[in-house]
Amino acid sequence: xxxxLLRSITAASLLALAGCSTDSSSSGSGTMxxxxxxxxxxxxxxxxxxxxxxxxxxxxxxISRALAxxxxxxxxxxxxxxxxxxxxxxxxxxxxxxxxxxxxDARKKQVDFIPYFTTGNSIVVQASGGxxxxxxxxxxxxxxxxxxxxxxxxxxxxxxxxxxxxxxEKAVDVREFGTDPEGTQAxxxxxxxxxxxxxxxxxxAADKTNGRLTISSKSLIYxxxxxxAVKRGDTALKKTLTTALDELKRDGTYAELLKKYxxxxxxxx
Length: 269
Prior knowledge:
- This protein has 269 residues and is an alpha/beta fold.
- 38% of the residues lie in helices and 25% in strands.
- Strands 7, 8, 9, 10, 11 and 12 form a 6-stranded mixed β-sheet that branches. A 3-stranded parallel β-sheet has the order 5-1-6. It has a 3-stranded antiparallel β-sheet with strand order 2-3-4.
- A hairpin with a 3-residue loop joins β2 (44-45) and β3 (49-52).
- α2 (59-70) packs across α8 and α2 packs antiparallel against α9 (253-260).
- It is globular.
- The model is unreliable at 1-27 (pLDDT under 50).
């Protein structure tokens, strides 16, 4: 019986060790699958992330591939709608979010951030109309398309609408859409008066519509830093990506990508 028990304990120990050998933590990168960086991104959001045929393209896929290469990892992408990204990260659908995710106090309670560029919002309207809002208080009482789950939803319903009411005007009529292109289509078809979206996305949309849309705001609204996001407490992966980002800054790749997509450097970089 002693021999049998010893053999059973030994077998169980070997199985446990075998299980540990496939754990992603053994790679030191902190990824779910050793050797692979699985990236969650909303691929309906040009120029940050979109599909060129079947290939993920844009700033976020470009920098994700560069970060993966610098970390000795193979990048893979999981196309996920923006409002579901943080939930997807929490349930283990991917290792990191790279999808122009604005850094906010509320989101800091859910994920750990690595700042990687600065941005802000622009107001987009139909070029043929006479409506030309330049600041958020010009949106009082107007219907405005925004992406569902975006920080801009809270800003327009809270801060901007509060300013409107203080002036004796109606609150901003915020209309949420599952994807940014859906909001753009609503604007083109006259379902909304304006669209508020990230500055680079606004420019891409205006350029794509051959002059049917125009950016009416003169400067970025609610400037903010965007960050790569990993699970709260995932120190291994955060260290891996931070080290890789530092390497991209040293070799010039980071500056080249910011210039290519007309983005600003993250504060403190």
